Amino acid sequence: MPWTWRQALFQLHWLAGITAGTVLAVIGSSGALLAYRAEIVEALNPALFQRQPPTPGAAPLTPAALVAAVQARDPKVQVQTLTLRKQTGWPVRIGFAPAPGQRRGAQHWLDPWTAEPLPEPRGDEFFETVESLHRWLLLPRDIGKPVTGVLAASLLLLAISGLVLRWPRRTLDWRAWLRVDLRLRGRALLWNLHAVAGTLALLCYLVSGLTGVYWGFDAVRAAVDGAVGEGQAARMQRSGGNPAGRAMGAAGGAASAPGPTPAPPRAAPDLDRLWQGFLRASNGNWQLVTLRLPARANPRVEATYLRRDAEHERARNRLYLDAATGEPIEHRRYAELSAPARLVNSIYPLHMGSFWGPLGRVVMVLASAGLLLFAITGWLLYLRRRREAAAARRARRASLAAAGGGATPEAGGLLVAFATQTGHAERLAWQTAAALGAAGVPATVRPLQALAPADLARHPRVLVVASSYGDGEPPDAARAFARRLAIMNAPLAPAPAFGLLALGNRQYGTFCGFGHALDSHLRRLGARPLFPLVEMDEADASAIVRWRAEVGAAFGVVLDEDATPDPALAAPRWLEAELGRRTHLNPGSAGSPLFELQIALPPETDWQPGALVEIEAPTAGEPPRRYSVASIPDDGTLSLLVRQRVLDDGRLGLMSSWLTVQTLPSAPLRLRLVDNPGFRLIDDDRPCIFIGNGSGFAGLRGHLRERARRGHGRNWLIFGERHPDHDAFFADDVQAWQARGLLPRVDLAWSRVAPTGRHVQDALKDAGDALRRWVDDGAVLYVCGSLAGMAQGVDAALRELLGSAAVEALLMEGRLRRDVY
Predict the structure, then answer these.
(1) What's the predicted TM-score (pTM) here?
(2) What's the CATH number for 680-820?
(3) Over the stretch 650-706, which tens digit does the pLDDT of each residue have?
(4) 575-677: CATH topology
(5) If DSSP states are collapsed to H, E and C, what string results for 322-361?
């Protein structure tokens, strides 16, 4: 199936994330460290950066005196730059012209009062390495620059694609964008942190990515510089640039190059006059100044200075002074540059965050360090997704093996697909295929969860047997297929002809809802119905007759209703049983009366924990009713919990009246035990959480009894009823399990206890932290009870606590199993 644009963008996002994102974490971490390089080095070297005068009140040396003292020690050196701070006690930085063949000259720190050389600061060499790592990944500069440029472009891609992928439906709700829910666990917590942090840091990453691209690619830099007018702003930004002319900026290396005879040497600049000229032109409004002395005679000397109230560290003014008189020739102020030129001149402060002041730098540092968080959460999400995909593949192979082998349905033949929760639809699918095979029409049987919607187009004819779960939802295993089919837009090509048997229960508001949804989507995608959809209420025999007749007519055959592929897949046999004892469990309750029925079965009758029982109705034409089995074979009897169902006219429902009032002890019953694979108990001793209410205790009780029999003690019961005085019918069982150490945690919800009444979903939310720990420890969740209210509330609570993606993963892994009615 071809990817949608969103799927393609997701693949691109995670691919860039686990490749470039890992290296970006290194670049971001080193950048966060470099942001406070000056402060860290200063703190490591207090004696160097907090100099004291040799005598009280002594004045620092002037630039002329500093240069004279340096040249007196070594007349051969040529001073190129002198950097001074107005801050008292700060050392002077002096730079020398590079030797022939070298790119940069040496630089040293000087005592501002004596011009004596000072030691290099501790930590400076370390930060040089960190800067090389940040800018060039410790590679040669010519190689490292474009590599970091590509990584910066990858950061832009990650930021923009991440924003698109997490765009919430409630766009104007800030909580949808920025809510961090630390109650989440596992994949849901990772995704929540990843998405919210990415949104918060989005602007920072866009700025970092754009400035990184500017520095990483010379062509981009040249184009941007040229766009603002002859590259003036960019040249001003560079520490070694000189806008007065190329010859002046490259003078240090010109002596060895062939060319015309140089002009005769002139007298050295008068530094005292230059300094006084700078002080007058700047009106004393400066905090940092660099004097650039020409290596050859030049009529102009450049002074680059930062005002006391400068917008940022690169908002520098450029002053050009007459070398002989010290009078200003040209004054280029940062504030007078064009807006594009100021922007380009601000690329470094933008990259560091200082463009927005101290807070901006903190934010940019946090965003840079956050790249490490993105790398970690991204990798964890990727690895969890791989594990989930592997689990889904294992589940698919297991389903295919159970359904008869083969990884891929045979193209061209008849496909019989099924979606089942309790196994009923699967049995009907196999029975249909067997009947068709006996009539000379071979068929391949597959579960829907093992198919992609496009697989249906591989077969000219398709029969589907689909159960609805709860109030018209797809069975748990078929949810992914249902979602893919619902969003599919391209018609099935070639379009198959299909027939559909929809299984449901009329007591729910949306009868056969999933079957009708399948029918609608298949028609929308161009599939042609072989016959009208057949609805089946529970085990309605007349619906089976209609189904067989429609299928037979569509294929021009007569189906043998006794054909079956395997006795294990045939419908369970009916048993003759009798009612043993009936006990009213909740006298005085505000709710409907609840009864425990103990039923005697034929000897050697067996069933699996979590099984269902179908009891034949006393009235002809009425389908049998299903109940959860509340006991295990070792109990020696079949136990049910049956609540009386009161109709709108006040009468009792047919089956609840018959089982709880009319039938007397020893009365015969006709029933059959039905396996319930969607609610089957696990075989190992992983922790289990049992959640339910009311008569739903039946399904939980069978599981807990079997766990106790096996000695598996990591069990947790979350259960709700109305009032402890009348509805604690389960108390004896719970106390017995607790006394044996087999039920270490019980959370009860009493809905009619004022003023603290609560429901099962409330108890679940209150225990959210423990729930996440149990789930992270591999717990399997079992939910049994009423669909309306409890089951829907529990589903919403689980999605709130764990995240929808985590709940879907639990369903796919078979770690969330439900028996609701």
Answers:
(1) 0.49
(2) 3.40.50.80
(3) 888 899 899 999 998 889 999 999 888 788 898 888 899 999 999 999 999 999 999
(4) Elongation Factor Tu (Ef-tu); domain 3 (2.40.30)
(5) ECCCCCEEEEECHHHCCHHHHHHHCHHHHHHCHHHHHHHH
